[in-house]
Design goal:
Purple Acid Phosphatase, chain A, domain 2; globular; 6-stranded mixed sheet; alpha/beta
Amino acid sequence: MIRIAHISDVHLGPLPPVKASEMNSKRLVGYNSWMFRRRGIHDPAITAEIVRDIKAARPDHLMVTGDLVNIALKREFINGASWLQHAGSPEWISFVPGNHDAYVPVAWEDGLGLWGDYMTGDLAVPGARPTDSVAMAFPYVRQRRNIALIGVTTGIPTRPGRATGTLGPAQLEALASTLSNLRQRGFFRLLMIHHPPLPGLAKQRKALTDAAELAGILQDEGCDLVVHGHNHTAMRHKLASRHGTVHVIGVPSASSNGARNTEPSAWNEYTIRRVSGQWQCTVNTRVWQAAQRAFVPQTSYSLEP
């Protein structure tokens, strides 16, 4: 048995001081969004409490599926590195980038490269290669007992007003062969992605541009579980594949206080075990209760094969 926690869309706040030289049209849009809306939703106290709550539960691993920062300031990446180090070691935390982590182009060594240890695999992935935004090989795969954690990146810089993501042909091709190989080797395959992976699960301006291609791969090769964030809402979908049901589960923002009709912060814990040759997975959700200033149990359910 192994227990794996999942959070997404941390959106660390408050924003560090912004220099005029750092501002461009995209960052200006994001800065105004933060000042007039987002800072009233993303609460650093909740961010701290969700980490405390997860640590108290003592899962075997933690997945963070993107959007650790807001407008990709260099200081935000430094703060993000400190947050990750406080939350846990690279061996205990697996991270994949989201669109806010690639909000605008930032030099690797000043940006996502500071979090590189949390995005490295320990199993070989033929065809994995860096992307335009991430100077590390994606997909990456981490083996935790008989679980394969597969990380992909969808974060790409986009024009103002858009929050789309893209995997790209190389990453899709490598992912397809990786899912096939891991299935043949008997692993439980758990895919980590920031954007919702299926067509129609996000508005067009925020969607994964190659979601149809990814859905086709999932139908052909199967995948036991796909976890994502991005929409800041709890989501649960299923996709039929040639190798069983693909379960797709999203979580709200890890820092949301529930203001402005948003969903309050929540995190999922997946308990995965193999019984009589079959995989079993139970999902337990804990949600932020403002009145109690704490995370409390919300739902528990099992994923059918």
